[in-house]
Protein 1
Amino acid sequence: MWIQIWLGIVTILLVVLFMWILRRQAPNADSVLQDEMESFFAEFERENNEMLEAIARFKQNMTMQLNGQAADLNSLREQVTALHSQCEELRSLMEGKEPLPEMVEDRETHQPSALSFLRDDYKEIPPLYHSGFSVPDIARKLGLGSGEVEMVVQMLKKNQEKG
């Protein structure tokens, strides 16, 4: 029985001693925790400031880019306005004048001229063909395929047969 009482007293003393040690270390642990929290918040604040600076630089770059694009847009608008005025001047000059030769219709058949349907690449073929160049020579000279040149020559021949 004395052993049980003795063990009870020792157990109570150990619990009291343990609680006393914990209380002594608790303020120390709180200060370590507080130091870590202050360090964390300082790092967080620094990163936030860096982020705000990066956003400010990005905003400044975007503003400069938008201003440049706005200037380009204004320049393009001025060019379009100038082109519209030139177009109007040309229209006023063209009133009462004869249309361009490529657009002249064959007055007898009321059909457009054969040359008016040719692409710009093909408009050099008829003069070369009438000058005596062969289809392969014309194709080589103009950098076109022989089939393309042959097709245009066939169209010319049919047009001459009709006329």
Protein 2
Amino acid sequence: MLLQGSIPEMSPLYLLGSGEWRVESGAKKGLLMPTAAVRNVTDISMELIRELEIDAILLDVDNTLAPPTSHIAYEGVHEWIDMLKENNIAVVICSNNYRKRVKPFSDSVGLNCVSMSLKPLPFGFNRAKRKLKEKPQSVLVVGDQIYTDVLGANLAGMKSVLLVPRDEEHGLTIWIRRKLEIRIRKKIKILGE
């Protein structure tokens, strides 16, 4: 069904080649399904943000804004954040990483941060939401992991955009999560593809 007006809350959506948004017919919105999926954070347009009725965005760091452990943002991230600010979209970094990793990066891109957020538990999302003073349904969580970013957003009553991981991360827990994500990612269509 093609959308006329706003996107139904928490529905999986996809962009058709014609530029029209469509909710996948029969798509089930479970706790592990994002509201939308794009390849890179900079692919999230103001059009999508407006369609989702978003006033604030919570961003992960690793594989979202920068390579894991890097303090240098991916190309286009600074300009994308500036675009959000110019459009009065509040932005906070919400990461499971330690403050010593997150704070220097958040300072480099001019954003506030919540570190050690314990995603997917709602504690960090709620701390960030209080900083933003927004209702959960108007907050968008953006990240590259289903079992932290997407699940946490859904548990907190927020919308989510899932990204394709750009760089390889090492460690047993990330390896396990990536393996568990394979079946779910096969069901998700990337906007514009």
